[in-house]
Specification:
The protein is of the alpha/beta class and 302 residues long. The protein contains twelve helices and ten strands. It is 45% helix and 14% strand. α8 links the parallel β4 and β5. The longest helix is centred in the first third of the chain and has 22 residues. It is globular and about 55 Å long. It binds zinc ion. Zinc ion binds next to loops.
Length: 302
């Protein structure tokens, strides 16, 4: 189904399924996730998207978390230093890989006769998502978002999924840029164990800011199930528009992910049922989840 049909379904509060982890799935299949492997292992990327579609995902997400011009630039003192010691064409690479990522997701959906399945562009904070203390000055980042989002829009992405955000102020800038490009914005925030955002804002503050900006779906993501539950218990009673969740399974073991026995697919489904009871209707998996997890959700919810 295309985005309009999907949005109608979401607005009717019918359960809609996202995909699961991609970077961690690349790792689980024997490669490092430190590189997105878009050019080096396109078949691997393609196969993971196909596996998620076959598992029942209604939306697939590009493998582009933290793939941005700034993430390359951040390795250097300044542009002069980058020019002196950076690889050639480095600053163009993010845009090229963004195009590559959308093309791979598109190829996956067409190969399965599912050309209408919307592609969500995975976009996170400009600086490190888990370090709200390092957030950029929001007055200065609009053009940077607009440039990045234009690459995704030109490549054919259907939705901007702003994920693992830790504060509403950066999300507001991102949504504004999405609206300028006339594309739907979905926003996912990281909750902490106290039910606030990782950056400290209360869910009441989140609702206040998001009500003014109107993302099509508001999510909690990229945290262990217990943190998602804590955040959702506070968010759901305050938010009357579509709500979604996708949680972590395992532990972050920088720079990679550590798979653990916590929350197998069946146990994850039990958490999802609880989140659905609390009001979440757009459901998927974050780091550590696999196509098997999405399949379990499909079997239960459809
Ligand atoms: Zn995650």
């Amino acid at each position: 189904m295309g985005y309009t049909e999907l949005k109608n379904r979401i607005d009717d509060r019918q359960v809609t399924l996202l995909d699961g982890g991609i970077g961690t799935e690349i790792l689980r299949r024997g490669y490092t996730w430190a590189s997105h492997q878009l050019k080096t292992e396109p078949e691997l990327n393609l196969e993971i998207h196909q596996d998620y579609i076959n598992a029942g995902a209604d939306v697939i997400t590009t493998n582009t978390f933290q793939l941005s011009k700034r993430s390359f630039r951040n390795h250097f003192a300044n542009d002069k230093h980058l020019a002196a010691m950076g690889a050639s064409g480095l600053l163009d690479r993010a845009g090229e890989l963004i195009h590559e990522s959308v093309a791979l997701a598109d190829k996956a959906r067409s190969s399965l006769g599912r050309s209408n399945t919307p592609i969500a562009a995975s976009i996170t904070t400009l600086e490190w998502c888990f370090r709200p203390d390092r957030n950029p000055d929001v007055e200065k980042i609009y053009d940077e978002y607009l440039e990045e989002l234009t690459d995704y829009a030109d490549a054919g992405a259907d939705i901007f999924l702003f994920e693992t955000f830790n504060s509403t102020s950066e999300a507001e800038v991102a949504i504004k840029a999405a609206k300028e490009l006339k594309k739907p914005a979905w926003v996912a925030f990281v909750p902490y164990q106290d039910g606030r955002l990782l950056g400290g804002q209360t869910m009441a503050e989140v609702v206040d800011a998001m009500a003014r900006n109107e993302p099509d779906v508001l999510f909690l993501n990229c945290a262990p199930p217990e943190h998602i539950t804590a955040g959702l218990e506070q968010l759901a009673p305050l938010w009357d528009k579509p709500l979604g969740v996708y949680a972590h399974v395992g532990k972050f073991n920088p720079p990679e992910w550590q798979f653990t026995d916590d929350y197998n697919a069946e146990e994850y489904l039990q958490e999802c049922k609880h989140w659905h009871d609390l009001g979440a209707t757009v459901i998927g998996g974050c780091c550590g989840t696999t196509p098997e997890y999405i399949k379990k959700l499909t079997e239960y919810f459809s």
